[in-house]
Amino acid sequence: MSSAIDVLIDRLHGLMPRHALVLGSGLGSLVETVTDPIRIPYADLPGFPESGVSGHAGEVVAGLIGKTPVVILSGRVHYYEHGKADAMRVPLEALKGIGVTDLILTNSAGSLRQDMPPGSVMRISDHINFSGTNPLFGEPSDRRFVGMTNAYDVELGDRMKTAARNTETELHEGVYMWFSGPSFETPAEIRMARTFGADAVGMSTVPEVILARFLGINVIAASVITNYGAGMTGGELSHQETKDMAPIGGKRLSTILTAMFENTDQSHG
Questions:
Q1: Beta bridge partners of 177
Q2: Is residue 268 part of a domain?
Q3: For residue range 199-213, what is the model confidence (pLDDT) as tens digits?
Q4: Cα–Cα distance between 34 and 31 in angstroms, integer?
Q5: Contact (Cβ atoms closer than 8 angstroms) between residue 34 and residue 63
Q6: 267 lies in some domain
Q7: What pTM was estimated for this model as a whole?
Q8: What's the structural domain count of the chain?
Q9: In 10 A of CB 138, how many CB atoms?
Q10: β-pair partners for 129
């Protein structure tokens, strides 16, 4: 039986992307920036999980952004769907297997800062794993002891900041705190997160960062802010709000990423 790597190599017809993106809830419009797209449903890729979350397409889209070959995972599987923190391990191993060296993760998140309203974009400078789990549980080799001091690649982060500056797009930065979900945080949990030094909260991304570092892939991540944390406005939170607000910040993030790729040194990595 063919592996996901074999299928990708066959379907990409010689395209050899070093850069990959994972798109979060409501951010599927980013694939519209890809020219000459090749679309491969997750269902066609052995071992790829299928997301059960609305706002996640569940397909690989490969092509060019600017002159840079890219491969996009449009849709992710979350820990809260099946209780598997390593749900994205096969997709990330497949990216590694086709030669990807740099990974950009995106998500929708709740802001803990009044100066970072819905519609903002935040580059993740560091994270707090508050879920109590890890995608490397059960990994038998000593490679499971992954250093996370420099989890987020400095060079890629600098390129993202430069792209934001060149396009005059505001880019916040801060610490992302991973809660398991799927229920939203309580006001008390939000107060705790702020005390711990978090700037945004969400239900994804951190497992993929850990897996990427485990696999030796450089990684950066950005959050599109869709709401304020529980208790900050008095209103209740909903997934519909996430889907409604994500495209607004998604346009800003798309502007930044497009500028990044248009100025990418193909020899990087």
A1: 128, 201
A2: no
A3: 999 999 999 999 999
A4: 5
A5: yes
A6: no
A7: 0.92
A8: 1
A9: 9
A10: 178
